Amino acid sequence: MAPINTRFSVGLHVVAALGYHYAGGGMTSDQIAQSVNADPSSVRRVLSGLAKAGIVTSRRGHRGACRLSRDPVHISLLEVYRACEPPAAVAVHDYPAVADCPVSSNIKGSLAFVLGRAQASFDDSLARTSVAHLVDDIRDRGA
Amino acid sequence: MAPINTRFSVGLHVVAALGYHYAGGGMTSDQIAQSVNADPSSVRRVLSGLAKAGIVTSRRGHRGACRLSRDPVHISLLEVYRACEPPAAVAVHDYPAVADCPVSSNIKGSLAFVLGRAQASFDDSLARTSVAHLVDDIRDRGA
Predict the structure, then answer these.
(1) What local confidence, expressed as pLDDT, does residue A61 receive?
(2) DSSP letter string, A8-46
(3) How far away is chain A from the Cα of B71, in angstroms, using its nearest Cα?
(4) Is A13:A56 a contact under the CB 8 Å cutoff?
(5) What is the CA radius of gyration of chain A?
(6) N vs C: which end of chain A shows fewer Cβ within 10 Å?
């Protein structure tokens, strides 16, 4: 299985490959796994999350192919991020509060606020980038 | 040991406790561990990272106390984040590129760019918040 914080980059690889071939007839999960060069079970796990989130559709059967469910211009990287069910970038610790310590009693709300704001900045950056942007960048690098 | 993505929130708890008591005589690492309510070895590990980064100073010996090395107004949460040596929020996968696949051959540069930008937004949010802000927020919640 892909390490937990690289699962998103596998997800991005999958949608980039499907976005690159969007005008074609779709790709099988084996073809996608070949592009990622990862074991097919890792890729299937990510594909299943993308399908559940409505980003990818797949036709069952021998010639079953996966496709993006809509134009890559209309899929943000934040949607892909959430579909990959990543852990929060940082999390509030869960040690119990000490009642007579003013810092311990009040810090969790403060931490949730500060860390939530940082996570929101991270999410906003992904929301502003589409799968089409990613595919264009890949084409530019290959040119 | 604290789970890897909560180590930063333990670090924030430590600097918040030291910031709260900044005008006093400092705190021993046992007093800090009591506030976090975590095992002292986790807290010492975080304290050691904060000391190495020049955020905390400690005096050795029986009455040795830890203090912030400067006014909490001048310590950003980004400094604390880096001192806690967190893993990147997301990382580029390291599956080898497939030479004849244009996506596989070019995606790592694109991923590093996109993920680096998201991480930078996360970092910027932390850079704009100081330990003093955190302490003020804790005081407000306790009021």
Answers:
(1) 62
(2) HHHHHHHHHHHHHTTTTT-B-HHHHHHHHTS-HHHHHHH
(3) 18
(4) no
(5) 19
(6) C
**What DSSP state is assigned to residue A73?**
G
Q: Is residue A95 within 8 angstroms of chain B, CB to CB?
A: yes
For residue A2, pLDDT over 50 is answered with: no
pLDDT per residue as tens, chain B (143 positions): 445 567 898 999 999 999 999 988 789 988 898 888 888 888 889 999 999 999 999 877 666 789 999 999 999 999 999 999 887 778 888 888 988 888 989 999 999 999 999 999 999 999 999 999 999 999 999 87
pLDDT of residue B142: 84
Burial status of residue A30 (CB atoms within 10 A of its CB: 0-12, 13-18, 19 or more): exposed
Q: Which 8-state DSSP code applies to residue B38? A: S
Structure-token pair, residue A66? 């996966």
Task: Give the integer Cα–Cα distance in Å for A31 and B55.
Answer: 50
Provide the pLDDT confidence category of residue A121 given band limits of 50, 70 and 90.
very high
Inter-chain contact B9–A90, Cβ cutoff 8 Å? yes
Cβ contacts of B10 on chain A, cutoff 8 Å: 93, 95
Nearest to A36 by CA among B90, B91, B103: B103
Contact yes or no for A114 and B129 at CB 8 A: yes
Interface test with A, best of B1, B9, B41 (most A CBs within 10 A): B9
Judging contacts by C-beta atoms under 8 Å, the chain B residues touching residue A95 are 10, 36-38
> What is the spatial distance between Cα A139 and Cα B11, in angstroms, rounded to a whole number?
42
Burial state string for A49-82 with b = 16 or more CB within 10 A and e = fewer than 16? bbeebebbebeeeeeebbbbbeebeebbbbbbbb
Average pLDDT, chain A: 89
